[in-house]
Amino acid sequence: MLLCLFLPQLPGKKDLFIEADLMSPLDRIANVSILKQHDVDKLYKVENKPIVSTSDQLCFLVRPRITNMKYVADIVNADKATGRSRKYKIIFSPQKFYTCELVLEEEGIYGDVTCDEWAFYLLPLDDDLLSMELPEFFRDYFLEGDQRWISTVARALQLLNSLFGPFTNTYGIGRCAKMVYEVWRELVEESEGDSQARRPEISHVFLMDRDVDYVTALCSQVVYEGLVDDTFRIKCGSVDFGPDVTSSDRSFKVLLNAQDKVFSEIRNEHFSNVFGFLSQKARNLQTQYDRRRGMDIKQIKNFVSQELKGLKQEHRLLSLHIGACESIMKKKTKQDFQELLKTEHSLLEGFDIRESTSYIEEHIDRQVSPSESLRLMCLLSVTENGLIPKDYRSLKTQYLQSYGPEHLLTFHNLKRIGLLTEQAPGETLTAVESKVSKLVTDRAAGKLTDAFNSLARKSNFRGISKKLGLIPRVDGEYNLKVPRDMAYVFSGAYVPLSCKIIEQVLERQGWLGLEEVVRLLNGNEFAPTEPVTEENPARETQRVILAVFLGGCTFSEISALRFLGKEKGYKFIFLTTAITSSARLMDAMLEAKV
Hints:
Elements: H1 3-6, E1 14-18, H2 20-29, H3 32-37, E2 40-45, E3 57-62, H4 66-82, E4 87-92, H5 98-106, E5 113-117, E6 123-126, E7 129-131, H6 136-143, H7 150-164, E8 169-173, H8 175-190, E9 204-209, H9 214-218, H10 224-232, E10 238-241, H11 243-246, E11 252-255, H12 261-266, H13 271-290, H14 297-334, H15 337-349, H16 353-365, H17 370-383, H18 389-403, H19 408-417, H20 429-441, H21 450-456, H22 461-468, H23 497-508, H24 515-520, E12 525-526, H25 537-540, E13 543-550, H26 555-568, E14 570-576, H27 582-591
Parallel strand pairs: 1-2, 1-3, 3-4, 4-5, 7-14, 8-9, 9-13, 13-14
Antiparallel strand pairs: 6-7, 8-12, 10-11
Helix pairs in contact: 4-5, 7-8, 13-14, 15-16, 16-17, 16-18, 17-27
């Protein structure tokens, strides 16, 4: 591991200070014993309080943030004031920014520290899922307009291109996606020839901005993996199941990936199917255990040495997932989950908007949860292309009265990012569409003013939904046991917009025929000038698609595209800046500063 090359540069015992964001990713690839082998004596979390380390060598593993530089500067300057002499090393992950060096210089410690980069771009969370573990990407780019992570994503893409490329068919939509693509192309040209001779293992790449589809990220998840994430919060591919799940006084940390035989079979299932599967699995396991009764000594010996350990492991995992399901059921029943889903479906379909607004008002008045109330308001706004002024003022007032005036800043942030907006008096969908159209046709206007930028982020969800058929029309009840399309990830009520766009572009080998949809999505689409088709038709059924989500990807979207892959013969690989969810989106807004 590259990190272990930097640690010996401080020979002898040293203390390692790790930023909280990097603890879980580091835990996935280097446990404490590996760090101890490289003379790391004690581990500390980077936090805003005086340090207690007595070591003569301090190493800091941090993100390239100004606050972290000031944290290190305070330690170094405090040591200088007391005459304490130590060695200091800063390891930036995934890369070092010039701003950080500038702050170190301003603080007067640039000559006292040594700096290195740990180019840790990609963390494999599963066989088909890569994460950059940059949750701040969403807030930094889409709210603050900070473009510093663009080159980081481009480098990650180039790393994959050098290993599995060359990538010839690259599509995308969104301003951020376009910038990443352009920076990545520059990197490709600089390293021309590295991967040109090889046969590409990835046939198509698709880049998408999170703000192209806020609706999917705001909806409640109902596939098993999504519900586990919403309920227990999956971190770096693992989850902590507490005593309510384990039926003991202990908590268990469980790695959720394809290696878990139980989880791999239920992760993409609609929650209504999961209990039935787990019951059948329990009966099958019992049958396998019962086989021992008719065995002779030799057969029992073989059973114990070859099968028993695997069965016990499967039994333990089965018990945990049954416990997780029971815990989810208790919490969702308490929250009246069905009523919540009914409101969401009404918002998606554009029916009973008054009734849905009343439900949101009641949700706020009962003070159920600040982030949940905010999520429902955002979903109403994004699906309705902004709230009418009367509703906006009313909901905002009620929210501030229920949860406190400190959330005024949150409303400011939500408006800036386009999640919770107010319609201009007399403004209709058609009027907004025509204004956006004028902006989109002006290709020279790369950087828009705040006012125009806010206008460009209007959602136009109703028009897009109609054009792409996002709301399935089914006679009778939607069959969740044998789903017919990707809408099953939202109980048959809605096909995720992001996934539908990818499906359509792959089918058409470009944006031809989707011009109106692109216009409603505010443009910034791109495609290869000459798409390269697979020469061997036998390989066509095994097309590998790299889906890149900038600003986060939900487990619902992953499940939907896995389903599409099975149906159409694609194999999807996911690269995301981080796993996201409605709660994470709202937390980013609640925590954000101006």
